[in-house]
Design goal:
The complex is a heterodimer of chains A (398) and B (409).
Chain A: H1 4-12, H2 19-51, H3 82-115, H4 120-134, H5 138-150, E1 159-161, E2 165-168, E3 171-174, E4 176-179, H6 183-211, H7 218-240, E5 245-248, E6 251-252, E7 257-258, E8 261-263, H8 265-292, H9 295-303, H10 308-338, H11 350-361, H12 364-393
Antiparallel strand pairs in A: 1-2, 2-3, 3-8, 4-5, 6-7
Helix pairs in contact in A: 3-4, 3-8, 3-11, 4-8, 5-8, 6-7, 8-10, 9-10, 10-12, 11-12
Chain B: H1 5-9, H2 15-26, H3 31-57, H4 61-66, H5 68-73, H6 82-102, H7 104-124, H8 138-158, H9 161-183, H10 198-224, H11 229-244, H12 247-261, H13 270-296, H14 299-307, H15 312-327, H16 329-342, H17 354-362, H18 375-407
Helix pairs in contact in B: 6-7, 6-8, 6-9, 7-8, 7-18, 10-11, 10-13, 10-17, 11-13, 12-13, 13-15, 13-16, 14-15, 16-18, 17-18
Classes of the chains: A alpha+beta (398), B mainly alpha (409).
Chain lengths: 398, 409
């Protein structure tokens, strides 16, 4: 009896109504359709490229690029290969993305705090800024800043902002700290401080775990690093009689500036545009993160006798941070991806260089592949890092 | 509150007292708030006076206004201008009637649209007539749209159930109708897409992107939640691939690779390439929004549907998907704003949209004599156009969100 039931049920359901069979069939059909579709497209592409005599190959990478690049982090000249030009583009994107992320975070946090200010005027001015910037396309803003830099006068007639910043048609020249002879001594302090910071991080983590209370160790580590490096700076100055770095103000010579650091107009326009635009979104994340911590938490902390500062540091901030990290990650990635708009204002970023390489070699497929792999690996790397960090600070519920 | 004299005396507070109290608590509550208020007032006053002075003395405003036809419709033939205008009026009429029939969210969207159109109509009164165009003045089209939007509400309310079905059919057909009116075909002279541009192109691209990416995005979201591993992996790979790269790369791919994928090296016009790229890009983001909506549904919904004997397809299309889509309407409006702004990137692949038209106007040799050029005025005008559209959409999204929040309790 027990063995006859499965037999009857098996024979009563035809195979085309068995969900397991259907599932396998659907997947097989789907896979075949996708593969066949890709195959047709691939065949068309190869046929077209053969006709144009442009079969995809990566051999162009070792050919001299023979185009100049306006600015580069590493030494570059047109006799170098396409692959080196590509790396220059990669590094230029990384440069604007990293500086942009740091500045946008600072501006965004300030903006988020301003939005929460008890001062009506301040919070509304911040809101007006958010509403204006958020509703205008980034590309339009970038082009606006770029046109503005074109209005700057010749180097000889630079606009002088407090002797520290000069605006001219070749870009922006800033006062910049330059290392002196005692800089290498101070570097030891910086390295030692880094080790100390790691130690502080580990100790705090262990303390949190042992006391079974949530906490964020990174701020302590960063604070420790800054304090030790700062003390080292003062001590090095005192012992060697020379500050490890001095702020060098640019000086206008006959044709150009001497001292200070000069960035191109494109870079300045791109950086300003990206920072102003991304800061708005970061500001909103900071604001909603702080607001999302329930009022009861603040009241409970105050009732327990924690001071205003302690409430913020031990109760509000760790919880807000937890809420803020995932959207922050996506904003950082957005900033990196948006830096590809640099092509419209002639900053030689990854996309700009890839476009130039494609125009010169006609190798669209390999260039697009390299471009996509670069952006995707940056995205994946950042996501992995942030997911790891996020997992570390998430609340563990029972 | 304490039940003594304090509550009884409250109504006696004079308006002047109320204002001073408000000023004291909101502007001068502490010493640092006082400092902030004074510094900000000084800075704001300076900035506003400077801005007003500049607006008054700037000479470049004529550039944008005399070239408004280029900015709005680029090189669309002058004698056919009535066609995009007709398309605008058709959509306005349809939206107005729908607001009356369905009310709720649709009515919020309609009122938002009427406000946007009204805001654009006022400055449009000052626009000069464009020689040789066959069509109505811009301000009249906008004013008529406002009228249609607002008149449709009472009309739709009065009409019976027959209108509901008529409207549903029309909404399904609206996208092909718009394309037919603007591009031509049956009976109308064809206007090639390479003549399209300006605000018209921006709007058409954004609408195409949203409309066409909708079915793809929903399918991807359902695929990502599927139990079948092959389909799930495909959908996850597609979504993460597209979301990992910038839109410029996708547009670039559309522009370079799409012609290669077609047999015989047929040429695909630039508008279609951009449209395909924008659609494929938008679908990945839409899929994530839909997935969020599906995940937020309580599992009891699916279980109850299954218990009632609905199969998987019925459960999805009758129970879970409608609820998920309703819940993510504000997110979809937000995504539409993003797409509307992002269409400006098509200038990088050589299309002339609103931004491209403005850049073109700025570069005209007529303005070489104007000191400093006309770029500030022209870019400010198109920034204002972008801003009005995005801002009203974001307000509508906020209102929808609020109405959901209240209706749920």
């Amino acid at each position: 009896m027990a063995s006859s039931i499965p037999r009857t049920s098996r024979s009563s359901i035809p195979f085309y109504r068995d969900t397991r069979v259907i599932a396998v069939l659907v997947q097989v059909i789907f896979a075949v359709a996708v593969v066949a579709g890709c195959w047709v497209l691939y065949q068309n592409m190869i046929a077209g490229l053969t006709r144009a005599n442009l079969l995809p190959t990566f051999s162009f990478l070792n050919v001299p690029a023979s185009f100049p690049i306006a600015e580069s982090v590493i030494p570059y000249d047109p006799s170098m290969t396409y692959s080196q030009a590509f790396v220059v583009g990669l590094l230029n994107t990384a440069r604007v993305a990293i500086i942009g992320i740091v500045l946008a975070t600072i501006l965004g946090v300030i903006l988020g705090i301003f939005r929460l200010s008890s001062n009506w005027l301040l919070s509304n001015v911040a809101m007006a800024y958010v509403e204006i910037v958020r509703n205008v396309p980034l590309l339009l803003q970038l082009i606006f800043w770029f046109y503005l830099t074109k209005m700057f006068p010749r180097v000889q007639e630079s606009i002088n902002l407090g002797d520290a910043v000069y605006l001219h048609n070749r870009g922006v020249t800033l006062a910049w700290p330059e290392p002196t002879a005692s800089f290498s001594n101070w570097l030891w302090w910086v390295g030692g401080a880094l080790l100390a910071a790691v130690a502080i991080y580990v100790v705090r983590q262990i303390q949190f775990r042992r006391r079974d209370r949530p906490g964020v160790a990174v701020p302590y580590a960063i604070l420790g690093w800054i304090v030790i490096a700062g003390v080292g700076y003062v001590l090095t100055t005192a012992f060697s009689g020379m500050a490890p770095a001095v702020l060098v103000f640019p000086e206008l010579q006959r044709f150009n500036f001497v001292g200070g650091a000069t960035v191109t107009a494109s870079f300045a326009a791109l950086l300003i545009g990206l920072v102003i635009y991304t800061a708005v979104y970061i500001g909103e994340i900071v604001r909603s993160g702080i607001l999302a911590v329930s009022k009861g938490q603040r009241e409970a902390a105050r009732a327990l006798g924690l001071s205003q500062g302690q409430t913020l540091r031990l109760v509000i901030f760790p919880q807000a941070l937890r809420i803020m990290i995932p959207p922050m990650t996506s904003q950082y990635l957005n900033l990196t991806k948006n830096s590809s708009l640099a092509v419209a204002i002639a900053y030689p970023d990854l996309f700009y260089i890839a476009n130039t390489i494609n125009n010169q070699t006609g190798q669209a497929v390999p260039v697009i592949l390299m471009l996509m792999v670069s952006y995707l690996s940056a995205s994946l790397f950042t996501s992995l890092l942030m997911n790891w960090y996020n997992r570390n600070i998430q609340l563990v519920e029972r | 509150m304490v039940a003594d004299g304090t509550t009884a005396r409250l109504p006696d507070v004079t308006p002047v007292q109320r204002i001073t109290t408000w000023v004291r608590t909101n502007l001068f509550s502490t010493w640092y708030n006082t400092v902030i208020t004074i510094v900000l007032l000084y800075g704001l006053a300076n900035a506003l006076v400077g801005l007003a002075g500049w607006i008054a003395q700037a000479q470049g405003w004529t550039a944008a206004f005399t070239n408004m036809k280029l900015i709005l419709a680029w090189t669309y033939p002058n004698d056919q201008i009535w066609r995009p205008q007709l398309a605008v009026l058709i959509v306005a009429a349809l939206l107005g009637l729908s607001a009356g029939v369905w009310r709720g969210v649709v009515q919020l969207v309609t009122i938002g649209a009427a406000l946007t159109t009204g805001a654009l109509a006022v400055p449009a009164v000052g626009l000069p007539e464009f020689a040789g165009t066959v069509g109505l003045p811009s301000w009249l089209v906008l004013a008529m749209s406002v009228a249609l939007l607002l008149l449709g509400i009472p009309l739709g309310r009065r009409a019976g159930g027959w209108l509901r079905w008529g409207l549903i059919v029309l909404w399904i057909a609206i996208y092909p109708i718009i394309i037919l009116v603007v591009r031509g075909g049956i009976g109308l002279p064809v206007v090639e897409t390479k003549l399209w541009g300006g605000l018209m192109l921006t709007l058409l691209l954004a609408i195409s992107g949203i409309v066409l990416s909708f079915p793809i995005g929903v399918a991807l979201a359902l695929g990502r939640r599927s139990r079948l591993p092959v389909i799930r992996i495909f959908c996850v790979a597609y979504i993460e691939l597209i979301r990992g790269v910038p839109l410029v790369t996708v547009l670039y791919m559309g522009s370079l690779l799409l012609p290669l994928f077609l047999p015989g090296g047929e040429s695909v016009d630039q508008f279609i390439r951009a449209m395909v790229a924008v659609t494929l890009f938008s679908a990945a983001y839409l899929a994530e929004n839909v997935r969020g909506g599906l995940q937020a549904l309580p599992a009891g919904q699916t279980e109850a549907a299954r218990a009632l004997g609905l199969n998987v397809v019925q459960t999805t299309f009758l129970i879970t998907l409608p609820q998920a889509l309703r819940a993510i309407v504000p997110l979809l409006v937000g995504q539409s704003i993003g797409l509307f702004k992002d269409t400006s990137l098509v200038v990088i692949v050589g299309l002339i949209d609103l931004l491209g038209a403005a850049q073109n106007v700025v570069g005209q040799p007529d303005w070489l004599g104007t000191p400093g050029g006309v770029w500030r005025e022209t870019f400010l005008v198109i920034a204002a156009i972008y801003w009005i559209f995005s801002f009203t959409m974001s307000r509508v999204s906020k209102r929808i969100e609020d109405s959901f929040a209240t209706s749920r309790h």
